[in-house]
């Protein structure tokens, strides 16, 4: 149940509540209907009892008898409707009782009072019985007699079951309608949650910067907390970027001083020590430049956008005029309808510059730059026909400080990877049958 969506939880809970409620309603209606039918049956039995008592008479021999009531069920053996009169010395019974005698409870019934009982009947049937004590007039011999009429309760049960059978389709239809209405109600109620998801996605893509306040009262506290969290995280990021930038800028001046000291050592004739110091200082300088690039790109990535193909062409135009690039064949291929990339043009130029410089250094004859659009992202691939990279080094190239040669190629790829990741993309490296490929995969800017 914990993995079930909120919509399904509400719908399932609502459907269960509806089914339980309709079940209880069906039970209550059945009880009300059964009570109504029983009251009608008792009223009918009172009429039959009056008819039986009105039919009491004496024959020519002075014996009491009862004129047969009009209902034919009294005449049919075990017909479902019975009467019985207990005299002081004898018992008069309807033909329907045949050889059966009603076993009435031994209770005291006042004259004219009516008692209702559930008793056994012929063939183990359950009977609804109505009894009354009556004082006979003098022409009938006087005295008190106990008169009772009974009805087979199976008829009452059949009427109740028929009522439930007629009611069931309507209850089922009502359940379907109520569950469907609950589904719609849940959908309308949860619509703000879908809007929050869309707003968070817009914030992530840079199309919005806050959740906002245009929400129902129940969702507004959540939106306010999210906006507060965003503001707090932005403040933390600004402080962290400022500290990183201050640290990088603070290191640049000592490094430049260290490079100056190395130059003076070299002029003084200590070239070996000067070269070592200069190499260390240059490595530190590259790391500082890398951190500065990461800090700048992270600050600009969300709101930036540029034409990747245009940036690529400018980078290639510069690279073809360098000493390593003037002897190579350069080709730029931009696919149709490539959207803008969500990255600053200067940052993309820096990343592509590192990749193009690396490709020019290792290419034999040709370097291609291919810009394409696939799966909602902008792909910028730099391909050369050089020897490529050893497979076991592919995953290590973009790691911090890893270098493939003494010229710092590995650091250039790592800087390109950092710029791509800060913009929400990635750098993919792969050996090809005809050379090597470094591909920047960048998010497309929102239109």
UniProtKB/TrEMBL annotation:
Kindly indicate whether the keyword Phosphoprotein belongs to this entry.
Answer: yes
- Chief localisation class: membrane
| Gene Ontology CC | plasma membrane
One GO MF term on file is: protein histidine kinase activity
Query: Where is the chain membrane-spanning?
Result: 170-190
An example Pfam family from this entry, by short name, is: HATPase_c
**Can you give the residue ranges of the Histidine kinase domain?**
246-446
Enzymatic class: transferase
Compartments where located: Membrane
Reactions listed under catalytic activity: ATP + protein L-histidine = ADP + protein N-phospho-L-histidine
Keywords, sorted A to Z: Kinase, Membrane, Phosphoprotein, Transferase, Transmembrane, Transmembrane helix
User: What EC number(s) does this enzyme carry?
Assistant: 2.7.13.3
The record's annotation in PANTHER family points to: SENSOR HISTIDINE KINASE TRCS (PTHR45436:SF5), SENSOR HISTIDINE KINASE YKOH (PTHR45436)
Report the protein name in the record: histidine kinase
């Amino acid at each position: 149940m914990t993995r079930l969506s909120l919509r399904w939880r509400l719908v399932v809970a609502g459907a269960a509540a509806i089914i339980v409620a309709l079940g209880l309603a069906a039970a209550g209606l059945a009880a009300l209907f059964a009570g109504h039918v029983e009251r009608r049956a008792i009223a009918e039995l009172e009429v039959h009892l009056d008819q039986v008592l009105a039919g009491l008479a004496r024959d020519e021999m002075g014996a009491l008898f009862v004129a047969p009531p009009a209902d034919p069920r009294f005449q049919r053996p075990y017909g479902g409707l019975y009467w019985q009169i207990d005299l002081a010395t004898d018992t008069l019974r309807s033909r329907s009782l045949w050889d059966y005698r009603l076993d009435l409870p031994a209770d005291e019934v006042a004259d004219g009072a009516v008692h209702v009982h559930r008793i056994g009947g012929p063939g183990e049937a359950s009977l609804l019985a109505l009894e009354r004590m009556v004082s006979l007039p003098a022409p009938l011999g006087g005295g008190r007699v106990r008169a009772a009429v009974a009805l087979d309760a199976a008829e009452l049960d059949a009427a109740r079951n028929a009522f439930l059978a007629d009611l069931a389709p309507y209850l089922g239809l009502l359940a379907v309608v109520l569950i469907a209405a609950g589904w719609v109600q849940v959908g309308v109620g949860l619509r703000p949650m879908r809007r929050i998801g869309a707003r968070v996605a817009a914030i992530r893509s840079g199309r919005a910067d806050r959740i906002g306040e245009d929400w129902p009262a129940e969702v507004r506290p959540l939106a306010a907390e999210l906006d507060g969290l965003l503001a707090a995280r932005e403040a933390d990021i600004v402080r962290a970027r400022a500290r990183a930038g201050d640290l990088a800028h603070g290191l640049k001046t000592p490094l430049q001083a260290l490079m100056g000291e190395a130059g003076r050592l070299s002029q003084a004739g200590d070239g070996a020590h000067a070269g070592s110091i200069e190499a260390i200082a240059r490595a530190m300088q590259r790391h500082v430049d890398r951190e500065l690039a990461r800090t700048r790109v992270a600050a600009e990535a969300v709101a930036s956008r540029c034409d990747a193909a245009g940036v690529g062409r400018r980078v290639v135009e510069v690279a073809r005029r360098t000493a390593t690039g003037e002897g190579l064949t350069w080709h730029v291929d931009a696919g149709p309808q490539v959207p803008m990339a969500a990255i600053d043009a200067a940052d993309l130029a820096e990343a592509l510059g590192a990749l193009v410089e690396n490709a020019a250094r290792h290419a034999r004859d040709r370097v291609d730059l291919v810009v394409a659009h696939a799966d909602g992202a902008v792909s910028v691939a730099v391909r050369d026909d050089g020897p490529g990279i050893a497979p076991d080094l592919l995953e290590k190239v973009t790691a911090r400080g890893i270098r493939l040669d003494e010229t710092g190629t590995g650091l250039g790829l790592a800087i390109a990877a950092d710029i791509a990741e800060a913009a929400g993309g990635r750098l993919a490296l792969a050996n090809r049958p005809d050379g090597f490929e470094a591909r920047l995969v960048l998010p497309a800017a929102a239109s």
